[in-house]
Amino acid sequence: MTLPEKIHQLFGVWVGASDEGGEVAPFQHDMEDSVALDDLLPYGLGQLTRPFGTAPVDPAVGALSLARTQERIVRANRFGIPALAHEECLAGFAAWGATAYPVPLSWGATFHPELVREMAAAIGRDMLSVGVHQGLAPVLDVVRDARWGRVEETVGEDPYLVGTVTTAYVRGLESAGIVATLKHFAGYSASRSGRNLAPVSMGTRERADVILPPFEMAVRESGVGSVMHAYTDTDGVPSAADAELLTGLLRDTWGFDGTVVADYFGIAFLKTLHGVVGSYGEAAGAALGAGVDVELPTVKTFGAPLADEIAAGRVPEELVDRAVRRVLAQKARLGLLDADFRPLPPALDAVTGKDGVPAGPHELRGAIRLDTGANRELARRVAEEAVVLLSNDGTLPLTAGSSVEAPARIAVIGPNADAPTAVLGCYSFPVHVGSRHPDVPVGIELPTLREACVEEFPHSEIVSVPGTDVDGSDTSGIEEAVELAGDVDLVILALGDRAGLFGRGTSGEGCDAPDLVLPGVQRQLLDALLDTGTPVVVALLAGRPYALGRAVREAAAIVQAFFPGEEGTRAIASLLSGRTEPSGRLPVSVPAAPGSQPSTYLAARLGLAGEVSSVDPTPAFGFGHGLTYTEFAWGDLDVENGRAPTEGAFALSCTVRNTGDRKGTEVLQVYLHDPVASVVQPVRRLIGYVRLDLDPGRAARVRMTVPADLAAFTGRGGHRVVEPGDLELRLSASSTDPRLTARVTLTGPVRTVDHTRRLHMEFVTEALPDTCP
After folding, report:
1. What is the pLDDT of residues 126-170, one digit of tens each?
2. Closest to 214 in 3D by CA, of 753, 762, 686
């Protein structure tokens, strides 16, 4: 290959599929220069950026447009190499008419990696069916400050939960033949003050023990094909130019053999935002040298600027060779280099005309459905397991399994009561792209919470007013809401966020918050309705946790849903009625006060409440919290092996019994407490969890094997070590609710461990004979 041919494999072009079935057209963006495909294609093309996620296009017609473009690309370059097409898939395939699943924060709330894997496989199959090869998900950033706008895109504030859930997502996506992309590598979520793209101030130990473990787990266990560098710099070194991170750690230590792709415009940001290079050519050389293989979303630095640097002898051509080998190896694994490669994607095979020629665009419209009944059922299951019951004074459930009929008159009040998109995050297609096309139908069914309640409570009269906007300052509607609340039996108050981008929402990329007060005047609406004396059930449809003030003590119940997707309102309504059992657990703590950030449950002793500070960071509801409609008794703790060498393992078991009269799910969470360590440690950190689904009166015996490796941390010398000494294994219902404590001891010398250490404890669950509740 000539140098231009090699370089052209190292960048993408942002395009939009034609809604008339013609070839894709380059997408013009204010951060990129115009691109002429005719000038590029004779040398080949590495990637096509977001052909379905740029503008609304019928899936079948878009697939035809992409196929025709691939045919052109193959014909134009002398090796016949097609482009790799990538799309966003953070909460489902980000295409018009595709299923909108719950956002990643809801995945974390399920504490159910296998269900997330099943969802990801479904997303991957839909992407593959229309000709897409790579998905830009999942996000492995660990929440460090809930004010950050992209909290909704994360799985939570604990690295073990993030790692297990995202690794499952990667396995699902890759099982469908789609390349998953880990992002953002690494530290993006730890930006100062929760501001998007702000500098990251953290020590190497926090980075090693909190930020990096999810990436390490996914690389080791999932077969992931791609990693995306983070926008941010850590201690002055931008991730896009960090060779120790992208090559030394990721490849040389962990053994990653896929491609490293740039976050959009991230290489150019080395010049424009970070100021560590003086030209786009220098930016290209710095990123390529560090280990970035592909520039996205379009060519800015890896084109002529890179070629000029090579010609001047400032960038060795061997770096291009290294990257292009990785890119071509990935294309080979995907079958794009096979002699019998066909641009026509699988979903069009079933709707082709004679001789395998696709029908015209008008005949194709509606031929491919990306929001099938099976998808919606899966979206419903994820949403139902993700909704968290935070508090309940006995008002819930309203009907099922109860001798009490549903309230005769229910008011559904609040800015998210009758808003169809209140269930969607900022990377869902209707919000991310559809908001720029208000005249185009949304493409999927999005029942509002009011509509879901009408459906769920057919014998109740449902009335509704908004009361306020999500983020407006107008309080004139509160009086009407209060008047309505005084004339009903129950209020369901729908509060929370509106997803958007760069300030156009209250949650989402670039929508950072100064504090965790409910946006706008929602807190005033909440307090006014609590004053009425009518029972108020607060339903939060949000992208981050918020301080809820009086509601923590005075609301009849609080239900938290993190942008639960297209079936989300039905999931909430079915939990309210009792038709489904609440099983979600908090992936992030809910603060008691709005100004206590940054704070997570992973706090050292000095991070807890004390007399030395007037700020109390104690949460209203801690990480892992979630109520059910039944009760569980924990007991019979047996520490079978309470002493182990630093290379050994502990063994223990306990019994969890459903003592109530309804079936339910308990999530047994195991936290490690290390009372004396050579460096400061969190008071507790999650090292394992298991979901237990139990009918009334049924019990399970849970046996646990805990490797000493799980007690490892980064010591003073910069290496991860396991130290001898006493530990506590706290078997807990949440980070703030320990039920049983096993005191164990590690013996022997300090042991240094590396990336081959054991990452998981083992659970073996045995059902016990039935007993009376």
Report:
1. 999 999 999 999 999 999 999 999 999 999 999 999 999 999 999
2. 686
